[in-house]
Write a structure and sequence with these properties.
This protein is α/β, with parallel strands linked by helices. It has helices spanning 16-22, 25-28, 34-45, 51-64, 68-79, 110-119, 138-144, 153-161, 170-173, 175-182, 184-187, 192-199, 216-229, 287-298, 306-325, and strands spanning 95-99, 124-128, 166-169, 207-213, 235-241, 257-261, 264-269. It is 44% helix and 12% strand.
Length: 326
């Protein structure tokens, strides 16, 4: 970390030297080192950056785009800002499913994925937003299924012990990051934190992260991050194109899924071509209809779509292998 940067106490961060590097537009901007990115984002999380400078940083990064070193430094700071979870040390390493998009058109089957994994014995953490206007969130479907929303680390750990999939709102899991997410309502655009919450690893032990992307440039950046900069001791990651932004496999047509383990990259699932017959899915995408259909799928009254069943198998195998290595 740069010695000239204040990183402790309440000392305000003088951000001009960072803004000078990142604020020269998409072509002229330069990227920060991992240490400087960590120092800057730490100050942002701690509220030690003025509103004017914070707005400048967020918009500059939005225009420039994050480099691998910057996203690595940001994530170093982010994961140091909240209390980490502990899952039972049994057959499986914990599995992390971010859920920040929900669905507009297709039924959101992220809860089905989480329940199938938990039913097999894996500790499963789903984290994300409770509500999103115009979308059906995973939290809303959890509520319709009668599953609790965990408001603390202690509550989440009790639910792991009971074999339940855990849903934690970002406000409960990582409150300082939740604040930076909320600035979208003021600025009107997303910021780097929207990427960070989808790749963070909230456990003290190694875990398997399910990560999705929506834009091709993020595929390149995240692939490089997990291939070179991600701390291997924090676990593995699956990377795939999002299903309306969610990390559950598309029930109609499987996406490519890549597994990053100890910086090695393996293609687990190839992108599926056009199919002649579509699976049976919920007739509507609202939370109540989706929850009722998920219950039927868990009871064997509806077939689990093939791409999701395959995703579950890969998750369990990688999670078991990760637990064995730990």
């Amino acid at each position: 970390m740069n010695a000239s940067v204040d990183t402790v106490g309440n000392t305000p961060l003088i951000a001009a030297r960072f803004i000078k590097e990142i604020g020269r537009g998409k072509e002229g901007a330069r990227s920060l080192s991992r240490a400087d990115a960590c120092a800057m984002y730490t100050a942002m999380l701690e509220g030690r950056v003025s509103d004017l400078e914070l707005g400048a940083i967020l918009l500059a990064m939005r225009i420039k785009g994050e480099s691998v070193e910057e996203i690595a430094g940001f994530l170093d700071a982010a994961e140091a800002s909240f209390e980490r979870l502990h899952a039972p040390h049994e057959e499986f390493a914990p599995i992390v499913i971010p859920s920040y998009n929900g669905s507009r058109k297709m039924a959101n089957l992220t809860p089905l994925l989480a329940l199938l994994l938990a039913k097999a014995g894996a500790p499963v953490l789903v984290h994300g937003v409770l509500h999103d206007p115009g979308r059906v969130t995973t939290a809303e479907i959890f509520h319709s299924l009668g599953l609790p929303v965990s408001g603390s680390v202690q509550a989440a750990e009790k639910e792991f012990a009971q074999g339940l999939p855990v849903f934690m709102p970002t406000e409960a899991l990582a409150p300082r990051m939740a604040h930076l997410l909320s600035l979208r309502q003021i600025l009107g655009v997303r910021n780097s934190t929207h990427t960070l919450v989808k790749i963070m690893q909230p456990f003290a032990q190694p875990a398997l992260r399910l990560v999705s992307y929506t834009h091709p440039e993020y595929l390149a950046m995240l692939s490089e991050y997990f291939s070179s900069a991600a701390p291997v001791e924090r676990g593995d990651a699956f990377l795939m194109r999002g299903t309306e932004g969610e990390t559950v496999a598309n029930a109609k047509r499987a996406q490519q899924i890549e597994w990053f383990h100890q910086h090695a990259r393996t293609i687990l699932v190839e992108k599926q071509g056009p199919v002649d017959e579509l699976p049976t899915l919920p007739e509507e995408s609202d939370a109540q209809t989706t929850a009722a259909w998920i219950k039927q799928a868990l009871d064997g009254q509806q077939p689990v779509p093939g791409p999701i069943a395959e995703q579950v198998e890969h998750c369990l195998r990688a999670s078991r292998e990760l637990r064995r290595r730990a």
